[in-house]
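At this stage, I needed to go through a protein sequence along with its fold in token form, as given directly below:
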Amino acid sequence: MSTIELPAVTQRPAGQRPVDQGAPARPPVPPRTSRWGRPSRSLIITAAIGLLAAVLYTWDLSRNGMANSYYAAAVRSGSESWKAFFFGSLDPGSFITVDKPPAALWVMDLSARLFGFSSWSMLLPEAAAGVGSVLILHRLVRKWAGNVAAHLSALTLALTPVAVLMFRFNNPDAFLTLLCLGAALAMWSALETGRTRWLLLAGGLLGLAFDTKMLQAFLVLPALGLVYLWAGPPRLRRRVVQLIGAAGVLLLSAGWWVAAVALWPAADRPYIGSTTDNSILSLIFGYNGFARILGASGGGPGGAGAAGGGGGGGGTAFGGTSGFWRLFNDSLGGYIAWLVPLAVAGLLAGLWLTRRASRTDRGRAGWLLWGGWFVVCAGVFSFSKGVFHPYYSIQLAPAVAVLAGTGAVALWQLGRRSPWLSWLLPAAVLATAGVAVGLLDRTPDYATWLRPAISVAAVVSAVGLFAATHLRRRLILATAAGLAALTLLAGPAAYALTTIAHQATGSVPTVGPATSGGLGNGPGGATADSALISYLEAHRDGARYLVAAFTSMSSDSIIIASGRPVITIGGFNGGDPAPTLAQFEKLVAQGQVHYVLVSNDLGGAGAGGGVGATGAAGGGVRGSSSAGGGVPSGAGGGVPSGAGGGVPSGAGGGVPSGAASGTSSAITQWVTDHGTEVSYGGDSGTLYYVTGTA
């Protein structure tokens, strides 16, 4: 029997309960080793896919440097201070946190503590999360639909451009994907066995996913919970009790860190970044929650701000205008849309094939699981009106990969059962190839040979698949199926290789060839000014903080290079009311900070100043007197809580406005009025000496 025909097997394995007439039984899974103890063909293919993923995600990994320097600064801080580690602080002094919970940072922090802080030690756990995601997906699909579907699905995920991008990057999305897939695998084990412990594990993993990227983790929750509620083996009452227990574990896993932060005295912990009131609950339900979906006016929490182009998130860095076709637009299409037509057609075919299945049939349960995952994520991403970046679509990538890989098998199976529907798979191949050609057309000078090659190969493979259905010739089938797979994966594979070949830095990295704006080396992509850091180290004079700088765009490179506590005034982009002017004056009067860096480029970062495309804040330094002094070892510590003001649009774009910008403006004015400009030999902005001026 050829491998492509494996999913068409209809007899049930020994011990499997019968299904309703017309519903395909789950195919038997071949042994992983031959009878002589040698690896089976399936195991060799699986290992090859895992090796491919490892090469893709680690090849020249250090090319990306500090990747998103905003999170890299937090990793450096967590490797220096356990307090910064626990809270996810931006600097070792725990002045302010980053805009996400710290679970993903913890793994990178531990790697940095073990191997020393570097680009490689920080990004290697991300690559490992990618390989783990591919292998978990393979196992999950294999348990459900057999080897052929598992191989196709895992290979598709490994080559998806957004996956290749984010599994080489230090944003939290890589670990979010890994944990969601782990939860799905645990839920599937519960579906197979009816045992509560697997559901509890699924709840625990999903809770950790929440501690990685908050409410976005719960986009897969409806699919996981409802599928078990419908198709779980036990009686309804027991299923409900099991799910209640899993929900309790989820709340415990997700809530322990939130409770610790909420109950911790505000004066003894860092300010909660990207909030107006220093509240972790505001971060969860505001900036990282409903504001992402519903949007907000101006540059407030989740608002598009100037860079976003309005409530719909119209800018390229924000995934384009929200709407039904958003996944295919100029901003988002190259990340995820390549195989969406095949995925949708495959889902419909799978649901049709299992329409008469019994309640507990796992064939239909699989389609409901991945279909629910796809529909919820695609719907939320398509219609979100707040801050949305194209790389968020990595959470959609597993569902697209599974529905495309397994869906191709289902479409073939449907054509075999109903010859009058044998045109469906060829049509899906042609439609999917058409999308690929359309995406490639957006960059006419990129791989000019690829578009005609895909067009011709798609027609040939479609004709071959149609003929194979009627002629029942294995050679024709194997040739057409192999050509179709190569054709449909050619576009995403080309984008994936191009992504690896280029450096990805900043808060909004891009895939494939450069098609439009984005913020590739903008916020989160700053580079250090060695002259500035050398001067500050030599003239610290016992201060707790090496310097105070406006926005993380000015501070993160200093934190990365020095590993010293730094006050980041206004948080990510100057919008957080931390510190207030009164609190800042108190810090100066207490001698906790002697120097303040003010950018001469005030456009794009509010009143506090920011950085340009390369991370330098621009402008010359008008020097006068300097202050000497020794260099203390430095220490961590908390920051007084603040209140009032606005909030930035977050680590990924947008500009502050209103009262938030006013808070930074007031401190800027105070510094320029009371401070003394000093010459330090660099060009990162104007450096002021402020000790004793309060």
The first strand starts at residue 548 and ends at 550. Confidence is low (pLDDT under 50) at residues 1-28, 297-314, 515-522, 602-660. The CA atoms of residues 323 and 383 lie 5 Å apart. Strands lie at 548-550, 567-569, 595-598, 676-678, 686-689.
